[in-house]
Amino acid sequence: MYKERAAVIGDKDIVLAFKAAGMDVFAAESAAEAEKILKTRAKDHCVIFITEDLASGMGDALEKYKRKAYPAVIPIPSSFGTTGFGMAGIKADVERAVGTDILFNKED
Amino acid sequence: MAERLNVNPTRMELRNLKRRLSTAVKGHKMLKDKSDEMVRRFVELAKENKRLRAEVEEELSGALRSFALARSCCEDYVVEEALAMPSRALKIKAGVENVMSVAVPHMEVSREEAGEAFPYSFAQVTAQLDESVLTVSKLSEKLIELAQVEKTCNMLAIEIEKNRRRVNALEYVLIPQTEETIRYITMKLDENERSATVRLMKVKSMIEDK
Predict the structure, then answer these.
(1) Does domain A6-98 fall into CATH 3.40.50.10580?
(2) Cβ atoms within 10 A of the Cβ of A57, count?
(3) I need a surface site. Which of A69, A103, B28, B112 has the fewest CB within 10 A?
(4) pTM for this one?
C-alpha cells in the first residue's frame, strides 16, 4: 500500500510551521542537500513539498518523479513569497500537452 | 512520397499489408480520439491547478511570513521546543485513480481529530505563532489537493505527449508507407498479369503462323 505521510523539505526556519501541521519536515540549506533528502525519503512519503527556492535548483531530479504516481513532488512558496517557479511548472505542462500556452497568455 | 516497405511483391504480402493497413487506420482513429479526450480533461485540470496554486501560494506565503515574524518575537529554542512534538499527525489516504488509463494519485486527508490544535502551552509563545500554525494546519488539506491535481496534470501532460507521438507516427509514417507499398505491389502484380497475357498471345500467334 502507499505511504500515508507528507513531507516538507525547506529552509530550517519555515519547515517548523509544517511540523505543527503534522507533516514530516527535513531542513535543507542547498538544492544539493534537498536532492539528497528527496532521494532517501521518496519511498516513505506520498507527497513531498519542496520550497521553490530549493526546487528551482533541482531541475532534473524533479523531472524523474513526474512519471510515477507516487511520490508527488510539489513546489511551495517560501516565507519570502513565491518566485513563480510553481506557476512556471503548470505553464510547462500546458505547453507540453497542448503545444502552446493557452492558459497564461491572456494575462501577460 | 513515402518510402515503401521492403517486401516481396506477392499476393500473400498484399493481403497481409491490407490487413495491417486497416488495423493501423482503426488504431489511428482510436488514438486520436483518446488524445482529444485527454486534452479536454487536461485543460480542465490545468485551470483548476492554476486556480488552486494561486490560492495556496497567496495564503501560504502569508502564513509563512507571519510565522517568520512570530519566530523573531521569541528565542529560537522556545519556538523549536514548542513545536518539537506535534500533537496531530497528518495522515493521507493514498490510492490510485484511473484517468484515461493513466494511473494518477488520489489522496484524501484523514486527520485524527484526537489531539489539540496547538502542541504547546500558550504561556511560552506569542499569539502570532498560534495564528500561523492554525493557518498552515488548515491549509494542509488544500495543499494535498493541490498536490493531487498538480501531479495528475504532470502525468497527463506526459501521457498526452507520448500519445501524440504515436498518433503522428501512425499518421505520417506507418499508414503512408503501407499505402505506398500496397500500390506498388498491386501495380507489380498487374504488370505481371499483363506480361503473361502478352506472352500467351505471342505464343499463340507463333503457333498459328507455323
Answers:
(1) yes
(2) 14
(3) B112
(4) 0.80
Which of B56, B77, B151 is the mutation pick for testing A, counting most A CBs within 10 A? B151
| Domain residue spans of chain A | 6-98
pLDDT in the model for residue B27: 93
User: Which of A33-37, B7-11, B190-194, B198-202 is least confident?
Assistant: A33-37
pLDDT above 70 as % of chain B: 82
Number of residue pairs across A and B with CB atoms under 8 Å?
165
B135 pLDDT higher than 50:
yes
Rg of chain B taking only CA atoms, in angstroms: 34
Query: Residue ranges per domain, chain B?
Result: 11-202
Q: How far apart are CA B207 and CA B210, in angstroms?
A: 6
Rounded to the nearest angstrom, the minimum Cα separation between B30 and chain A is 18
Q: Mean pLDDT over all residues of chain B?
A: 82
ipTM comes to 0.82
The cell numbers describing B40, all together, are: 479536454
Name the CATH code of domain B11-202 (choices 1.10.287.3240, 3.40.605.10, 3.50.50.60, 1.10.10.10).
Answer: 1.10.287.3240
- 3-class SS at B132? helix
Judged by CB atoms within 8 Å, which residues 33-52 of B form the interface with A? 38-39, 42-43, 46-47, 49-50
How many whole angstroms separate alpha carbon B159 and alpha carbon B165? 10
Taking the CA of residue A32 and the nearest CA in chain B, the distance in Å comes to: 23
A4–B64 CB contact, under 8 Å: no
Q: What is the 3-state secondary structure (H, E, C) of chain A?
A: CCCCCEEEEECHHHHHHHHHCCCEEEECCCHHHHHHHHHHHCCCCCEEEEEHHHHCCCCHHHHHHCCCCCCEEEEECECCECCCHHHHHHHHHHHHHHCCCCCCCCCC
**Residues in a beta bridge with A78:** A81
